[in-house]
Write a structure and sequence with these properties.
Layout (H helix, E strand, L loop, with lengths): L14 H10 L2 H8 L3 H15 L4 E3 L4 E3 L1 H29 L3 E7 L3 H16 L3 E7 L6 H4 L3 E5 L7 E5 L4 E7 L1 H5 L15 E4 L9 E5 L10 E5 L6 E2 L2 H9 L4 E5 H10 L3 E3 L6 E2 L2 E6 L6 H17 L2
Parallel strand pairs: 3-4, 3-5, 8-11, 8-12
Antiparallel strand pairs: 1-2, 5-15, 6-15, 7-12, 7-13, 7-14, 9-10
Helix pairs in contact: 1-2, 1-3, 1-4, 2-3
Length: 315
């Protein structure tokens, strides 16, 4: 059966005074060490003894000794108090300089193209910080799972999170391999995808994502393009962009993926971009973290590092 344990309010009051008196066997020396009057030391000890329910010291006009209860209390209180002091020093150190474990929840797809160079430069700049990357497709509760921050696509950032841009907005593009197009004509309109093998994305809620496009042919008077959503079909369903990218390069079908993921394959000719005029723009990738708490130096350093790298990429 689970029991509830609580520390009584004020239970630690007077412990430091007790330990000082016990060490020096003198109320006056303890007062000098702690910077208070001997009468204040005496009063604190009396309050502590009353709260415990036992005399801790034997007092005479010439000396101060410990009772049996005092000896027992000293044996347990001293190491416990020293641990509390050490814990406070560790916590204070983490609160004053970038150090400790920085835990980040990240999408697997952004690690090689975005996080690897960023993390390497950060670790070199802040050797006292250990970085843990937890790759997950789930949008997790950062506080509940013990994470300092997360890397998320713009549309997945919750309203109560602070978001720092890591990339500019990017296009969601359709790509296929030269081998794939050697046997099929290239689509010229999103509706043509119904005759193509398409690699599909399964969302975290279990639904298969529709392919989204801007209708650049729309006759609407609106300043923004209208959206077209297409339910495609094909031989592969995946829940990560890396698998879809690899399958597309092998000629299994077309994939709709964030443009930064395909930059290398497009440059090398392993993939071909189609339906460029219809590519929708997404907000980009963000570092996000809860805004209603004090930011530890390790996270502040990482935030500043992200901002510095993002600013450098603009020039």
């Amino acid at each position: 059966m689970k029991q509830n344990f609580t520390v009584r309010q004020g239970a630690l009051d007077g412990v430091e005074v007790f330990l000082s008196v016990a060490q020096h066997r003198s109320f006056r020396k303890a007062a000098a060490e702690l910077g208070v009057t001997p009468s204040a030391i005496s009063q604190t000890v009396r309050v502590l003894e009353a709260r415990i329910g036992a005399a801790l010291f034997i007092r005479t006009t010439r000396s101060v000794g410990l009772t049996e209860a005092g000896e027992q209390f000293l044996a347990r209180a001293k190491p416990a108090f020293e641990e509390l002091v050490a814990a406070s020093e560790v916590a204070r150190g983490l609160g004053q300089r970038p150090a400790g474990l920085l835990r980040l929840s990240v999408p697997r797809a952004v690690i090689p193209i975005l996080l690897e160079p960023l993390i390497v430069s950060f670790c070199r700049a802040y050797p006292e910080v250990e970085v843990e990357l937890a790759a997950s497709k789930e949008v997790i509760d950062l506080a509940a799972e013990g994470f300092d921050a997360a890397v998320r696509l713009g549309h997945l950032v919750a309203p109560d999170m602070v978001a720092v841009p890591m990339t500019p907005p990017f296009r969601l593009i359709v790509v296929g391999s030269p081998d794939y197009f050697a046997e099929r004509s290239r689509p010229t309109h999103p509706n043509d995808l119904r005759q193509h093998a398409c690699l599909r994305w399964r969302r975290t809620n279990g639904a298969i994502a529709l392919w989204s496009f801007n209708d650049s042919d729309s006759d609407s008077d609106s300043d923004s393009d209208q959206t077209i959503e297409i339910a495609v079909s094909g031989p592969l369903i995946a829940n990560d962009y890396s698998s879809m990218l690899g399958a597309a390069m092998e000629g299994l079908g077309l994939a709709q993926i964030p443009e930064p993921l395909a930059t290398g394959a497009l440059s090398s000719g392993k993939l071909i971009h189609v339906l460029e005029a219809y590519a929708p723009v997404r907000p980009g990738v963000f570092l996000c973290y809860p805004g209603r708490r004090q930011i530890m130096p390790k996270l502040r350093a990482f935030i500043d590092h992200v901002k510095s790298r993002a600013a450098g990429d603009k020039h």
